[in-house]
Design brief:
This protein folds into three domains: 218 residues, Isopropylmalate Dehydrogenase (3-Layer(aba) Sandwich); 120 residues, no CATH class; 38 residues, no CATH class. It contains 15 helices and 16 strands.
Length: 410
Amino acid sequence: MNKKNYTMEKIKMTTPLVEMDGDEMTRILWKMIKDELILPFVDLKTEYYDLGLPYRDKTADQVTVDSANATKKYGVAVKCATITPNVQRMSEYNLHEMWKSPNGTIRAMLDGTVFRTPITIPSIHPAVKFWKKPITIARHAYGDVYRDVELQVNEPGVAKLVFEGESGKKEEVVVHEFKGPGVLMGQHNLDKSIRSFAHSCFQYALSVKQTIWFATKDTISKKYDGRFKAIFEEVFQEYKERFDAAGIEYFYTLIDDAVARVMRSEGGFIWACKNYDGDVMSDMVSTAFGSLAMMTSVLVSPDGKYEYEAAHGTVTRHYYKYLKGEETSTNPMATIFAWSGAFRKRGELDNLPELVNYADQLEAACFDTLNAGLVTKDLVNLMEGITPKALTSLEFLRAIRERLAARLGA
């Protein structure tokens, strides 16, 4: 497919997007997407932050903090996938420190909730035969096992949970009387964070006009999970009239019952989960709908700030192939939809219907391409009813570009 020049007047922006660049193969795709699908059509305005691991290391991760503050200032960000370093990455990148997850830092600073929704097409049928519509997972992004403290004990002894209040009041409970070696974990959450989670969930449900479910295990965890349930019910009272007017519902149940109900449902709702449940269930939902590369993700703060990204990682295996000079067929759909989601929201906030239309047409051009059977390799064996043709990443993006240009009249 040959690269073509387009002569349309570029679509204007007034407020910049916060652009967060990333790592490995997704960083390569990021530039391809901009070159092929954005810069020919949009007079792009962004405030750029390089969240690639080398620059995070160079700035002692200050760039991540700066990008989150910029998101607070401008309200809409778009983020490329990034590496969260482990021991192997420490040596590979010669890092000064094992820096924290950029996503974790940004989520904590925005006090946000992550909403993940699969991108669906007619030729890829969900593994669960009942599912007809996408299921959005709303994941609480603070605390629980992700901020736990742990001990490995090697002798008999007593483990206690102790709280010493500023007032001098002390509360103490025995966790376990160990007769031998074992392991021990403490975790926490905050009323403020749970309340923000609830507000984000109810606001998002109203914005997309979908019913929302919330599930914990409060029959077992009567205080910890019970606190989540109680705060959600309290916050919902502020939204009940608006939910009734919109014809949507808030529904609470136990997590095991929710799993059973989800498997028998037709989809089309939001499923709010605690941190770990959301981590697991978002992967389950994305895989059952087809591919993690076809999963959108948006972080929403309770005060209406948005950060869009792909739900997947940096596609390391493809990046190593790319470094050897090999062509790759990496699926860019979720990253494209991160950009389109950010453009749509920016257009809505700035009252720029042409920018909103561009976002709609970009997504439609992606669907035109996929429905024509032009796909990346990961989707070939998932498609039914058509004969797909596998393309390289660049070929796929150029096929989308041709259809986008036609839709925009370029």
